[in-house]
Structure formats: structure tokens, C-alpha cells
Amino acid sequence: MYEPIQLDSVSAVNFKELTYPAYQSHLLHISEDNSWIAFGLEIESYPVGLVLAKDAICEEKKVAEICSLFVIPEYRQRGIGAALLRSLENELIHRGCEKVSLGYLDNPNKVFIEQMLASCNWEKPAKTALICYGNMGKLKNASLLKNFDKLSAKLPAQFSLFPWSSLTEADAEAIKNTMEANPLIKKFNPFVESHKLESLNSLGLRYKDEVVGWMLTHRIAPDTIRYTQMFVDPALQPLSRSLIMLATAMNIQIKTAPDAPKATCRVDIDNYPMVNFVERRLAPHLDNLKYAWRASKLLT
Questions:
Q1: CATH level 3 topology of 5-122
Q2: CATH 3.40.630.30 placement within the chain
Q3: What's the predicted TM-score (pTM) here?
């Protein structure tokens, strides 16, 4: 029977390499921030497994998200992951959390992850998104780009594209006011991560004098641009207007950023038109296409 230990900032040091670099600082300072919880397991004083989670208030309920769950390969399929999960769940119940969730991508261990979750009575995982990974050397052959001139000619004269970096204060204020009145537009908040925006090919779309859409990108690595957010006011779009923005941004990357040949994006699984477009039109030209999954468990 495995007995994971709850980690503090001292004991966490030995487990640092079992989580992603982005979370290592949170793990090492876990005693200073009560919203983070971690359990580790050692076998003969050797760290073999770690689970790291964060709790928060969502819709007036206390919930938790597992940020990292890892068991070193030679110790997998021995029940260690399930033991870590159960220890975490007990601590979350003690803290008053009502729900815990875990997100993950398609990977060679997906079957074993889901067997572990099932053994702990988690709900069946559901697809949440498509994650695309591509290289502009291949993507330039997609019909979206090969037929760009024909596609862009469909944009009515009242619409115009502009560099997002030229967005005025009045434009930004108008968008913020619209977001307050429209929950759908708020979901596509263009000001999230604005300090990390890739100015090279982040674009806006105007209808007459009003900003009605945007294609926002971020440089997530020196050679990779993430296509983070694409939105056109539903009242003013067929899908082609979104695709014109996407194709324009991709063309800019191809022509002006030879140092950044890679691209990635996420498409929510309930965005049926874009999921269909990706699977039918872009998938043959991508390096990789993965599904994102989410599982959860009610703790009360």
C-alpha cells in the first residue's frame, strides 16, 4: 500500500524535476501559497511520483485543477498514480473543494491515464478541443493559402483588416463596453495576454468604423507563433471572414518571419464549423493534430 506525503517547500525540492518548468516555482514555494497542494511518493528515498494542484473559487464554489500528475516510467501501472490522486482528493475534501478536474492531450499513455481515473471513480473524459501543430513550409500548400486571392476578394468593401497594434484607445473602450453587454464577446476577450501579443501578424477587422473581429497571435517560442484567438461578430460573419483573417496572418508569417516557421492553435470542440474546417482542410498539411481531453470528479 503506497502512502504519498503532502509536500511543503522543503520536501518539495526532491520532486522538482517531476513537474513542468512553469510549475516548479509554485512547487518550491508551496508553503507560502495555500492555494497550491502537492503530494509526492518516494520508494527507497527515491521520488517516483508527484501530483500538483491548485484550488480556486469558481461560480461561488471551491474547485481544484490538477496542473501536473507524473509517475516516472519504470514505476507506472503499479497504482502509484491512483494513490497520489486519492491522497489529493482527501486533502481537497478537507479544504472544502467540491470538484477536481484534470486536462490532458492525446499521448501514448492516454489509455492508462483513463484506467487510473476510472479506478478512482472519475467521470468519463470528454473532448474539449483540437490542438494543431504545423510548419509553414507545409501549410503554405493548404487550399486556404493557395486560394488566398480568391478568398480575400469575397470580403465586402465595408470591411477592412488592420494591424492590431494600431488599435486606438477609443476602439479598445468600445470593445470593452460591448464585452460588458455581451457574454459571448467577453469569452473572446482580446485583451488577455496583451503584453505578450505578437505584433507581426495580430490583426483586427473593421466593419465601417467599428471593430468587429480579431485574429490575435503570440510568440510562444523563438520559432513558434500561436494563433490564440479568432473572432468575428456572429451577426456579421460567414466563416469565410474569419478564414480571411487567419489566411492573412499566416501569409504574413510566411513572408516576413522565416525565423518562426512553426505555428500552433487550439480550436474548441464545440466550434463545429472550425473543427470541420481543420479536420477536412488543414489536417493533411499539419505536422500533428491532437485532441484535448478533460475529466472531473465531484467530491461532495
A1: Aminopeptidase (3.40.630)
A2: 5-122, 131-291
A3: 0.87
The CATH class, in words, for 131-291 is alpha beta
pLDDT digits (tens, 9 = 90+) for 76-128: 999 999 999 999 999 999 999 999 999 999 999 999 999 999 999 999 999 99
pLDDT digits (tens, 9 = 90+) for 248-294: 999 999 999 999 999 999 999 999 999 999 999 999 999 999 999 99
DSSP the chain: ----EE--TTGGGGGGGGS-HHHHHHHHTGGG-TTEEEEEEEETTEEEEEEEEEEEEETTEEEEEEEEEEE-GGGTTSSHHHHHHHHHHHHHHHTT--EEEEEEE--TTHHHHHHHHHHTTPPPPEEEEEEEEEEHHHHTTSHHHHTHHHHHTTS-TTEEEEEGGG--HHHHHHHHHHHHH-HHHHHT-TTTTGGGB-TTT-EEEEETTEEEEEEEEEEEETTEEEEEEEEE-GGG--HHHHHHHHHHHHHHHHHH-TT--EEEEEEETT-HHHHHHIIIIIGGG-SEEEEEEEEEEE--
pLDDT of 235? 86
